[in-house]
């Protein structure tokens, strides 16, 4: 448990490490609700108005994978999941990032996900913003001595479900994303939000942990 004491409100079953075989036997779940693809600045501004109504947003990014040494790419997609709709921002189609920057800098909108430091730093290479209201549920899980800290493991522990990683290494810079890419990206943001809400329900957030800004 990395020398950490279990949080008193963490269910005991969350502290048992699941084997890969156990995870693979779980049913696959995907986001099956509305997905809104944001392609330009005007659509981003419209989405920002709707997202301002949300208090908790599942957050993730997708980047084109690199297969050669020294080859790197900027983030191609930002996913923000609200209670009923997941918004996917295609960054290559945007010239201004004011609307997105405002969301990511707003302390009143909690942006929740896993591995947020990396995602935030990568986005800051594209546009400037002061990250506020970010909560890394993977880091919260580590500090609370939950056995898994990754998105797939947390989904398995907290919900008894498996999320597919099949589209992870696909080309996220394609102007026309395929349906399986849209669902994959939306699922990661959706389950991040669900993990946060489940942790909140159990009282794991009884003290402030793992926030960025």
Automatic annotation (TrEMBL):
3'-5' exonuclease domain ranges (all copies): 35-204
GO molecular function ontology, one term from the record: ribonuclease D activity
EC number(s) on file: 3.1.13.5
This protein's UniProt keywords: Hydrolase
Hydrolase is among the record's keywords: yes
The UniProt record lists the keyword Hydrolase: yes
Enzyme class: hydrolase
Name of the protein in question: Ribonuclease D
Native source species: Candidatus Magnetaquiglobus chichijimensis
